[in-house]
Specification:
289 residues, alpha+beta, Rossmann fold
Length: 289
């Protein structure tokens, strides 16, 4: 296990209540004799040089904060410890922001393990050139810009035409993302350790409506139809990357980067954590759990 020498803290840049928490954690780590830094209102470019020199980054916020931290930390193979200040906080490890100190102490003394999660990369190919792309921990989404209007998306798996979707959007998700937008669209739940890609259409109309779980290493290519009557967007983890042009091809592959999360719970935590959120009032032995 890597010895922790430098720890960074990323507050949620849009949630000011996270700022004093970040400073408190910073001071606690400094008192332990470790190097530390923290950022409140930050961008990837502003913290990139500090992240690459860190052994651990603490992210404060909800799942959005974890996605943001994962994207900046993954290229440097830096693990992320999440402290929840959001709603679900499914990706975070410390659920009570008022009780972070004893759990941070456990992390510092080595009572931790690292969970690795697959990411995917979506790129836009225009002619013979790749013009841009981005990595995602949850999903790559190809969506129309107008709510409630379908788009046509020719979809290829491993270079073979599969189907043309008529839908509001197409969600291409990781196992991590299977519990996010893909789940809301009726997709299956995948264990987080899997590296499979999941394809789920959002509000399909008279076209393939079932989700598809692909084999590990599968390639997905999507071409918006020239018949679409609205702009089509490429979105990674909720962030719009670009607007697609006629003839563009979106290529989705497993990313060379992985996200690494610090865990304190037992290694089989996933299913209990998931069901506690999906079924908060399901009874066991006559008692609410």
């Amino acid at each position: 296990m890597i010895t922790l020498k430098t720890i960074g803290i990323l507050a949620h840049p849009l949630r000011e209540p996270s700022f004093p928490i970040a400073e408190q954690i910073y001071q606690t780590i400094q008192q332990r004799g470790l190097a530390s830094w923290f950022a409140t209102r930050w961008t990837v470019d502003e913290v990139n040089s500090q992240v690459c020199e860190s052994d651990l980054v603490i992210a404060i916020g909800g799942d959005g904060a974890m996605l943001r931290a994962a994207r900046v930390c993954a290229p440097h193979d830096v693990p992320v410890l999440g402290i929840n200040m959001g709603q679900l906080g499914f990706l975070t490890e410390i659920s009570d922001v008022q009780n972070w100190e004893p759990q941070l102490e456990a992390v510092l003394r080595g009572d931790r393990w690292i969970e690795t999660r697959t990411m995917i990369r979506g790129t836009i190919q225009r002619g013979d050139q790749v013009i841009m792309g981005g990595d995602a921990l949850n999903d790559i989404v190809i969506s129309g810009s107008t709510v409630g209007r379908t788009i046509q998306l020719e979809t290829y798996i491993d270079d073979h035409w599969t189907t043309t979707y008529y839908a509001d959007a197409l969600v291409i998700a990781t196992a991590t993302g299977s519990t996010a937008y893909a789940l809301a669209c009726g997709g299956p739940i995948l264990p987080p350790e899997l590296s499979n890609i999941l394809i789920v259409p959002a509000a399909p109309h008279l076209s393939m409506s079932r989700p598809i779980v692909l084999a590990e290493g599968a390639k997905v290519d999507v071409m918006p139809s020239a018949a679409n009557q609205q702009p089509v967007l490429l979105i990674a983890d909720g962030m719009v990357l670009d607007e697609l042009r006629a003839g563009d091809k979106v290529c989705v592959r497993v990313s060379p980067y992985v996200s690494r999360f610090v865990r304190l719970r037992e290694r089989n935590y996933f299913y209990r954590s998931l069901l506690d959120r999906l079924e908060p009032r399901v009874q066991r032995d006559g008692k609410y759990q």
